[in-house]
Design goal:
CATH architecture: 3-Layer(aba) Sandwich
Distance between the termini: 36 Å
Structural class: alpha/beta
Strand content: 5-15%
CATH topology: Rossmann fold
Largest sheet: 4 strands, parallel
Order of helices and strands: EHEEHHEHHH
Shape: globular
Number of strands: 4
Length: 195
């Protein structure tokens, strides 16, 4: 996207599942950005502060784009696997959360265990290769889109030193957010499943 931040840009928080997207949504909410969420997925032991999701996002592959106009000027979570289904009719600013893949896998396994669901029959090593390939192809696609700007955010670095990253995030989103409020959201106590 050419030019600066526009008020009707859609802010998209993305990344692999369990990569810090819910924390980022909570930070943006604290900073004063309106969010598109429905509260259908309640907070639980895996995400004690909530998931910040909007169920209709999952229907993007089926062409359900009607809600995106209402997301202009707001923030919405779209996992990385669904990004390529965003229609080119809007301007997006994507905050992409990166977390060490070994921690993502560990966190996903713990979530499955907490829900008493069977884990995939694929090894962690194979899954890590698949995730790495997915991330590379997703970023190649993002970089080719003229209507999308991307900010890469390191989840691990955000927990370690948010004071240097929050101002960068605020600038990316137009400089209108309350940085102090955002800093208070970062909670290292929720940093579990460390590598």
């Amino acid at each position: 996207m050419v030019g600066g931040v526009q008020e009707d840009d859609v802010t998209v928080v993305s990344g692999l599942p369990r990569s810090g997207t819910s924390m980022m949504m909570k930070m943006l909410e604290a900073g004063g950005l309106a969010l598109v969420i429905d509260g259908e997925r309640a907070a639980d032991v895996d995400n004690p502060e909530g998931y910040y999701e909007f169920e209709r996002v999952k229907k993007l592959p089926k062409g359900d784009h009607g809600w995106i106009e209402d997301a202009e000027g707001k923030g919405v979570k779209v996992i990385s696997a669904l990004l390529t289904h965003l229609p080119p009719t809007h301007q997006y600013r994507v905050v992409f959360m990166r977390r060490r893949l070994v921690e993502v896998l560990r966190s996903q396994q713990k979530m499955l265990a907490n829900r008493e669901e069977a884990a995939d029959q694929i090894s962690d090593e194979e899954m890590q290769v698949l995730y790495d390939k997915h991330l590379k192809s997703t970023f190649a696609w993002l970089e080719a889109q003229p209507n999308i700007e991307v900010l890469d955010v390191d989840y691990n670095a955000m927990l370690k030193d948010p004071t240097s990253l929050v101002p960068e995030l605020n600038r990316f989103l137009g400089g209108r957010l309350d940085e102090d409020a955002m800093l208070h959201v970062v909670n290292p106590d929720l940093y579990r499943n460390r590598a």
